[in-house]
Design goal:
Blueprint: E1 9-20, E2 26-43, H1 46-53, E3 61-65, E4 75-79, E5 82-86, E6 91-93, E7 101-111
Amino acid sequence: MMLLENLPHVATAKKRKRTKDAMGGFTDSFTTVFSDRACWVQPASDREVNWWQQRSIGISHRIFFASDPGLDETHVIERGGWRYEVRSKADPDDSVGLGVLWRVMVEREGST
């Protein structure tokens, strides 16, 4: 079975809503966008990390989906006890062989 048909991981995506609190700070609340969606989590390459750092954006991983997950910088992805902050909109990536996966660049922030 091809990787494109059997992605090895699953993840949950949540949309962040940030509101200003009474002290001038922010409070985040989250709404689940999808749960247990098949994906493939990979560490970002040194080249990718450097490219994003030149734009003052930290990334640590890339997450692939079989179709456009519809995520952007207002989302977080949770997987395996870790929370990943989404740093890019999904882009089609044809570097995975004979098909196309949708790649989202993320930064691992900590445990959920």
